[in-house]
From TrEMBL:
<dbReference type="InterPro" id="IPR003593">
    <property type="entry name" value="AAA+_ATPase"/>
</dbReference>
<comment type="subunit">
    <text>Homodimer. Forms a membrane-associated complex with FtsX.</text>
</comment>
<keyword id="KW-0067">ATP-binding</keyword>
<dbReference type="GO" id="GO:0005886">
    <property type="term" value="C:plasma membrane"/>
</dbReference>
<dbReference type="InterPro" id="IPR015854">
    <property type="entry name" value="ABC_transpr_LolD-like"/>
</dbReference>
<comment type="function">
    <text>Part of the ABC transporter FtsEX involved in cellular division.</text>
</comment>
<dbReference type="GO" id="GO:0005524">
    <property type="term" value="F:ATP binding"/>
</dbReference>
<dbReference type="GO" id="GO:0051301">
    <property type="term" value="P:cell division"/>
</dbReference>
<comment type="similarity">
    <text>Belongs to the ABC transporter superfamily.</text>
</comment>
<dbReference type="GO" id="GO:0022857">
    <property type="term" value="F:transmembrane transporter activity"/>
</dbReference>
<keyword id="KW-1003">Cell membrane</keyword>
<dbReference type="Pfam" id="PF00005">
    <property type="entry name" value="ABC_tran"/>
</dbReference>
<protein>
    <recommendedName>
        <fullName>Cell division ATP-binding protein FtsE</fullName>
    </recommendedName>
</protein>
<feature type="domain" description="ABC transporter">
    <location>
        <begin position="2"/>
        <end position="227"/>
    </location>
</feature>
<keyword id="KW-0131">Cell cycle</keyword>
<dbReference type="InterPro" id="IPR027417">
    <property type="entry name" value="P-loop_NTPase"/>
</dbReference>
<dbReference type="InterPro" id="IPR003439">
    <property type="entry name" value="ABC_transporter-like_ATP-bd"/>
</dbReference>
Length: 228
């Protein structure tokens, strides 16, 4: 489903962020992306979202080389990917319900579909009773569950998570991981950049470790491998 072929990214200051990376991820996989700060994890994610372009190499997603994608097709491409961030990034002036509905409106969903789908998503993340709440009225764990519901709203085949538990206590972190694990079991591919050693070590999923822009480890049932 995702294939990086000899991908390099050199930023303007001649800094090599990724150096000749090749990696393939199959549909339905759960992949942890680990490595020290500055290793290239964020660059990898930005390339996958087509927020930046590689200096060289190809990035194939669902059979299409996204580096060659026409500008007008980029929004359609991105709709196929749900994104979850460390800082939640909910719209503060919209309720829980509206945050999810808005993501569907942007993707031109009908109001009938929105009315059917939003309660389903809220039920999946256990927040049906909070649909009228605003983000500031929710705990961090609840806000992240809303963000996950929003990420799922347009039925993406891929969810990318950038440090999704970085602002959460251990209990809420595990609740989020259980939710992501369920979503993965229903067939959605998950790529998650993280520094959460306990979570990576307990879940035994595929672990891809980057260091200085190079993949130094790729294990099917891996561990975190660093002390922090
Ligand atoms: P990580 O997410 O693993 O911390 P990044 O992908 O953010 O790593 O960064 C990889 C390297 O590229 C780092 O050395 C960083 O300083 C550099 N880098 C990241 N973004 C830019 C940029 N916009 N311009 C120049 N250098 C950058
Ligand atoms: P805390 O007591 O610090 O809030 P938890 O009770 O949530 O933390 O978890 C304690 C440890 O048990 C975790 O660090 C983890 O190693 C393990 N653990 C908790 N929940 C799960 C889970 N759903 N799957 C696998 N391991 C888990």
């Amino acid at each position: 489903m995702i294939e990086f072929r000899n991908v390099s990214k050199i930023y303007g200051n001649n800094h090599i962020a990724l150096s000749n990376i090749s990696l393939s991820i199959k549909k339905g996989e759960f992949v942890f992306l680990v490595g020290p700060s500055g290793a290239g994890k964020t660059t990898f994610i930005k390339l996958l979202l087509k927020e930046i372009e590689p200096t060289s190499g190809q990035i194939i997603v669902n059979g299409v080389d996204i580096t060659q994608l026409k500008r007008r097709k980029v929004p359609f491409y991105r709709r196929n990917i749900g994104v979850v961030f460390q800082d939640f990034r909910l719209l503060s002036d919209k309720t829980v319900y509206e945050n999810i509905a808005f993501a569907m409106e942007i993707a031109n969903a009908s109001s009938k579909d929105i009315k059917r789908k939003v309660p389903q998503l809220l039920s999946l993340v256990g927040l049906l009773n909070k649909e009228k709440f605003y983000p500031h009225q929710l705990s961090g764990g609840e806000q992240q569950r809303v963000a996950i519901a929003r990420a799922l709203a347009n039925n993406p085949s891929l969810i990318i998570c950038d440090e999704p538990t970085g602002n959460l206590d251990p209990e809420n972190s595990w609740a989020i991981m259980e939710l992501l694990n369920e979503i993965n079991k229903s067939g959605t591919t998950i790529v998650m950049a993280t520094h959460a050693k306990d979570i990576v070590d307990a879940m035994r999923k595929r672990v891809v470790a980057l260091e200085k822009g190079v993949i130094i480890r790729d294990e099917q049932r891996g561990v975190y491998g660093y002390d922090d």
